[in-house]
Amino acid sequence: MSFSKKIIAFLLLTVAVFAVLGYVLFLCTYVILNFSWQVLLLAVAGAPVFLFFFKFLWHDI
């Protein structure tokens, strides 16, 4: 793998990590401010879908 491809892979991985951290922070804030069982159920149901796509991106790089 050439040097430029390593830099691009590192930048993509960095963006993916910050996207996951931002999603988790947003989710925690939203659940705390708008707490209801429906919001909590949506958060629990939506997290595995998001993590599946993050795993796919992680292995793609």
What does this structure look like?
The protein is mostly helical and about 60 residues long. The protein has one domain. Helix content is about 90%, strand content about 0%. Helix 1 packs antiparallel against helix 2. The chain is elongated, with a radius of gyration of 15 Å. The relative contact order is 0.13.
Write the layout of secondary structure elements.
Blueprint: H1 3-33, H2 37-60
Helix pairs in contact: 1-2
Transmembrane segments: 7-33, 39-58
Keywords: Membrane, Transmembrane, Transmembrane helix
Task: Provide tags for this entry.
single chain, 61 residues, mainly alpha, 2 helices, 0% strand, elongated, transmembrane
Distance between the termini: 12 Å
Helix content: over 70%
Give the overall pLDDT as a whole number: 79
Radius of gyration: 15 Å
**pLDDT under 50 segments (min length 5)?**
none
Question: Helices and strands, in N-to-C order?
Answer: HH
Query: What spatial form do the alpha-carbon principal axes imply?
Result: elongated
Query: How many β-strand stretches?
Result: 0
How much of the polypeptide forms β-strand, as a percent range? under 5%
| Tally of separate helices | 2
Structure summary:
The chain has 61 residues and is mainly α. Helix content is 90%, strand content 0%. The protein has one domain.
